[in-house]
Design brief:
The complex is a heterodimer of chains A (512) and B (155).
Chain A: E1 3-7, H1 11-15, H2 18-31, E2 36-39, E3 53-57, E4 60-64, H3 72-77, E5 89-92, H4 97-100, H5 118-123, H6 128-134, H7 138-148, H8 160-168, E6 176-181, H9 190-197, H10 199-213, E7 217-222, H11 227-242, E8 258-263, H12 273-280, E9 304-308, H13 309-313, H14 315-321, H15 323-327, E10 330-331, E11 334-335, E12 337-344, E13 350-355, H16 360-367, E14 377-382, E15 389-391, H17 401-406, E16 415-420, H18 425-439, H19 445-462, H20 467-484, H21 488-492, H22 494-503
Parallel strand pairs in A: 1-2, 6-7, 6-9, 7-8, 12-16
Antiparallel strand pairs in A: 1-3, 3-4, 4-5, 10-11, 12-13, 14-15, 14-16
Chain B: H1 3-17, H2 24-35, H3 43-50, H4 54-63, E1 75-80, H5 83-87, H6 90-101, E2 107-108, E3 114-119, E4 131-133, E5 136-138, H7 143-152
Parallel strand pairs in B: 1-3
Antiparallel strand pairs in B: 1-4, 2-3, 4-5
Classes of the chains: A alpha/beta (512), B alpha+beta (155).
Chain lengths: 512, 155
């Protein structure tokens, strides 16, 4: 019997050599006449240990990492296929503290299964949620999602069940489910990890959403920067069709649900749901006025659910184990778990799925291990390029939507980017304005013009041209952007700009 | 590729995709995948097939950063400029890349080997700084690693 060896096929692991390591393992095994079965799993999300190599010993996965091609011969010499000692031995994967301390609900299978094997998915509790949903009324499916307390994981944190209920109760011949997979926020990669590491969970979540609200067509709007996710999704969708999990008669229920991946084209603003729908309709990604809400008049004017990847991928476990099970995790009005992404200047970057309520400090130091450079962490930007810079004095804030909002910060999509004390925050504020100018859709004036004026004002501040006067101007400009923009791109660019100014005035050359 | 094969390729892609809902982006992707760019000569045919004006098609092409209307170099380097990469030294890497290739963003080397484009996040933020060449994604890219990659790609 062949021995199964796991080497991640996740694109981030590949970016640091997982393909070369996998090839070296296969070659070395062949040379030694050892029969192995290589599985390219998703990543466990411990990127400082990638390329991670795992083998099954006594029904338990044992890990070695980080394994470079030059280490492979010595691994075979040490008989790693039986879990024997080696300098790179990490022990049982699930006993590694970073992993063990997590609560993986949405990411339950990522790193464990072969991502594009339907058999593997089903063997690991896949499609149990759909099975339950098929046996329920539409209203009951929606009720489970409402009861779970799930809020939109894309960043806006709107209750998912309420959105679904609106679409369910809006009569129409045609409704749509859209998965927003335009994960453009810097410092975020949880959507990518799910789509590459467990694409079936997203397909199942969208199918349940379709049955629940009476939509028979789904679109995954995927950013073009994710070619690996594109391949994994298309492979999984083809298998789901073959096995009757998509198509005209989902598992004999008589219900129809079709699903297609559509690619974006490098426009950040298309992560905004109305701009996304314009893009899906084949137009420039201009933001629409709201109302009407997409749930009432969305794609092609029809009632449409637009949910983030993680929101939809959390639905199967909710329908499998019940809304109450999911709601029992978390704190306050932030229920369930949040997949956090540790990025930038941290020693232990990666994915941490855990119940709401952990503090930012615990996340940065207990999980993240402090900065990669060994210098003090000056600030962290939470929630992507439109998120505020959080100074050390606020690191004890619990990860909770309301607690973050109280500090004028946002949790967003759960991306956490750490900066050490060599970063100049005035430069980061300038970059925030520049990013807004590059990505603005151009529909509203505050964002289109204000961002460019913002770059000019920041340049003057940085170059000490009428600095005091320009600080006043910058605040006034931010006020206009904040209150006068049509969507969050212009409306939230002041978050990084003003948080940088308020917490690090010395970088702007002014006194606190 | 001759002008007549370009026209033929574009027509084949249009015929295959024009009946999809919201067909314009899939068609533009199809053309760019096949040709490396979207020739301005192809705009009238695309517009006619979708009952759009040429201005509307041009407007969509110019709106999206990814679409281009000029031929790229043999390989396009997409260098990430976003915050996570900046926190790990991408500004210095960016300066090195521009010097090494001798071009700025949106330009192509004189020998036609490399084009350089900025990108705002590749989702590789756990391994910053990052870049993409073709479908290959690279992480923890140092100046030396960049030189090795470029040399291996046969500059």
């Amino acid at each position: 019997m062949s021995i199964t060896v796991y080497v991640s096929g996740d694109s981030s692991a590949i970016s640091i050599g997982a393909n070369r390591t996998a090839a070296a393992v296969v070659k070395e095994a062949a040379q030694r006449g050892i029969d192995i079965n290589l599985v390219r799993n998703g990543s466990r999300g411990m990127y400082w240990l990638e390329p991670l190599v795992e083998v099954v010993v006594n029904n338990e996965r044992v890990a070695y990492g980080a394994v470079n091609p030059s280490d492979v011969a010595s691994l075979f010499d040490a008989d790693f296929l039986n879990g024997n000692a080696h300098a790179l031995l990490l022990g049982a994967t699930e006993e590694i503290p970073y992993f063990k301390k997590q609560q993986r609900l949405t990411f339950a299978r990522v790193g464990i299964t072969d991502p594009v094997s339907l058999e593997d998915y089903i063997a690991h509790d896949g499609y149990l949620g759909l099975k339950n949903a098929i046996g329920m009324s539409q209203a009951d499916v929606v009720k489970h999602v409402t009861d779970s307390g799930l809020r939109g994981r894309g960043g806006a944190a709107f209750p998912t069940g309420i959105k679904w209920n609106t679409v369910l109760n809006t009569p129409s011949e045609q409704k749509y489910i859209i998965c927003n997979a335009d994960e453009g926020d810097s410092g975020t990669f949880s959507d990518r990890m799910i789509m590459e590491g467990d694409p079936f969970v997203l397909i199942e979540g969208m199918t349940i959403a379709g049955l629940a609200v009476g939509a028979n067509q789904g679109f995954i709007y995927l950013r073009v920067e994710y070619p690996h996710a594109h391949k994994a999704l298309n492979a999984a969708i083809a298998k789901a069709y073959e096995a009757g999990y998509l198509g005209d008669n989902i598992q004999g229920s008589g219900k129809k649900f079709d699903l297609e991946v559509r690619l974006g084209a490098g426009a950040y603003v298309c992560g905004e749901e109305t701009s996304l729908m314009e893009s899906l309709e084949g137009k420039r990604g201009l933001v629409r006025f709201k109302p009407p809400l997409p749930a009432i008049s969305g794609l092609f004017g029809q009632p449409t659910v637009v949910n983030n990847v993680i929101s939809l991928a959390s639905v199967p476990v909710i329908l499998d184990k019940g809304g109450d099970y999911y709601r029992d995790f978390g704190m306050g009005r932030s229920r369930g778990t949040l997949p956090l992404q540790l990025a930038g200047n941290l020693k232990h970057t990666g994915l941490v799925e855990i119940a709401f309520g952990l503090t930012l400090r615990e996340l940065l130091y207990d999980f993240g291990g402090g900065s990669a450079t060994g210098r003090p962490i000056k600030a962290v930007q939470v929630g992507g390029p439109l998120g505020a810079f959080v100074p050390e004095s606020q690191f004890d804030t619990p990860l909770d939507y309301e607690a973050f909002a109280a500090n004028w910060t946002v949790l967003g999509h759960g991306g956490v980017v750490a900066f050490d004390d060599t970063m100049n925050m005035a430069e980061m504020a300038r970059y925030a304005m520049e990013f807004c100018a590059i990505e603005s859709c151009g529909k509203c004036t505050p964002c289109r013009i204000g961002s460019t004026r913002g770059i000019e004002v920041m340049d003057d501040i940085i170059n000490n041209v009428d600095r005091e006067k320009n600080i006043v101007l910058l605040r006034s400009l931010c006020d206009t952007l904040l209150n006068g923009s049509l969507c969050a791109l212009g409306g939230m660019t002041p978050y990084p700009v003003l948080s940088a100014l308020n917490h690090f005035p010395e970088d702007f050359g002014v006194d606190a | 590729m001759t002008e007549s094969t370009i026209t033929e390729t574009v027509q084949t892609i249009i015929a295959e995709l024009k009946d999809k809902q919201g067909a314009l982006l899939p068609i533009l992707h199809g053309v760019q995948d096949a040709l490396g760019y979207i020739p301005s000569d192809s705009v009238p045919a695309i517009a006619a097939a979708l009952n759009l004006s040429r201005a509307e098609v041009h407007g969509v092409i110019s709106f999206y950063h990814y679409f281009r209307d000029t031929p790229p170099g043999k390989r396009t380097v997409h260098l990430c400029r976003a915050e996570s990469c900046q926190s790990m030294g991408s500004n210095a890497l960016e300066a090195h890349v521009k010097t090494k290739l001798g071009i700025d963003y949106h330009e192509t080397t004189a020998d036609g080997q490399f084009s350089l484009e900025p990108v705002y996040c590749l989702g590789n933020c756990a391994c910053s700084p990052a870049m993409q060449i073709g479908e290959e994604i690279y992480g923890r890219v140092s100046a030396d690693a960049f030189d090795d990659i470029i040399n291996d790609l046969g500059a």
